[in-house]
Each structure stands twice: as structure tokens, then as C-alpha cells.
Design brief:
23% of the residues lie in helices and 23% in strands. The chain has 180 residues and is an alpha/beta fold.
């Protein structure tokens, strides 16, 4: 099945904690945006998150019992969802919160066990195994070890422009996962 490179696609940025996923994403976002892509990011965390400030109206409304609070402003809007019981969010539920019709690419940090195209971020010094050894969805490994033995191509973790070019190539050749 082929899909249009103009449709929204997903690329996972996968790796173990401390491997540099967020640092790489921070470097990739402006490079991909400069190439004309409209980008979204989903970042999974196992920790409780707090984006609001005590004393602000949105914080007070949320803590008073609102299960969905949308702070709508002239430059950005922030949606906060409160769940009745703790539980791991699914990638599909997280993706449903984005307007993928206005995006070309969603970079997904975390959700490393999901069946989607991935760029693995790996630092051998951390002593963790390669995800690509058992995950056929990994397209390449971004690493700081040029001699690493991996079942997929290696990209220099310290050269984000080369990684951005690879992502553009994967998108053009329909190797990324379509957003549904």
C-alpha cells in the first residue's frame, strides 16, 4: 500500500531513557520546519505532568473539578485532560487529540513498543540493548558510535541535519507510518 507524502505521517523517536531523544527532537524540529513541514509532537511520559501554575484561573478551574480544560489564547491554546483513574495513554488516543489534517509529520517520542516507523536513538555507553535487534519498524539508528553493529543503517547522532535529510527521504519514499 502506498500513501501520499503530502498526507500526515508518523515517525517514532525511540530509545531508552537518557539516550538523547528529546535533545535530538529539539534539534530536528527547526530543521524539518525549515524544509517546509508542518510538525506535531507527541511525547509519552510515565511521570505525572503539570503544565499549569497554581493561582492561575485554568489551574483553579481544573482543580475545582473540570475534566477537560482548554486555555485559549491569541498565540496558543492548551488542552488539559484529567483522567478519573491513572492509566497509560494509548498512542491512538493521543494522536486523536491532534488535528493531523494541518500537519505533515508527527514525531512520537516514547511509545517504543508501538508498530510504527522509528528512528532509534542509541548510546552504547548506557549499556542498553539495541531496539532494532528485535523491532523491524526501526529504519535507522542515530548513535554516537560510528562502528556500532546494527541491523539497519547508522546515522550520526551529532549531525541532526543529516538525520533531517534522512527523514525527508523516508517521507518522500513512503517509508513513514500514515496517521489515521
Amino acid at each position: 500500500m502506498t500513501h501520499s507524502p503530502s498526507a500526515c505521517h508518523l515517525l517514532g523517536i525511540a530509545g531508552y531513557s537518557g539516550s538523547g531523544k528529546t535533545t535530538l527532537l529539539t534539534a530536528l524540529l527547526p530543521l524539518l520546519r525549515a524544509r517546509g513541514l508542518r510538525l506535531g509532537v507527541i511525547k509519552h511520559t510515565h511521570h505525572d505532568v503539570e503544565q499549569d501554575t497554581p493561582g492561575k484561573d485554568s489551574y483553579e478551574l481544573r482543580h475545582a473539578g473540570s475534566s477537560q480544560t482548554l486555555l485559549a489564547g491569541p498565540k496558543r491554546s492548551i488542552l488539559t485532560l484529567e483522567y478519573d483513574a491513572p492509566g497509560e495513554p494509548s498512542l491512538s488516543a493521543s494522536l486523536a487529540l491532534l488535528n493531523t489534517q494541518d500537519l505533515d509529520l508527527v514525531l512520537v517520542e516514547g511509545f517504543r513498543d508501538q508498530p510504527l516507523a522509528k528512528l532509534e536513538v542509541h548510546r552504547p555507553a548506557h549499556g542498553k540493548p539495541l531496539l532494532s535487534a528485535t523491532d523491524s519498524h526501526v529504519l535507522a539508528v542515530a548513535t554516537d558510535a560510528p562502528g556500532l553493529a546494527a541491523p539497519v543503517p547508522l546515522l550520526d547522532l551529532n549531525q541532526p541535519a543529516i538525520i533531517a535529510a534522512a527523514i525527508m527521504d523516508w517521507r518522500a519514499s513512503n517509508r513513514l507510518t500514515p496517521a489515521r
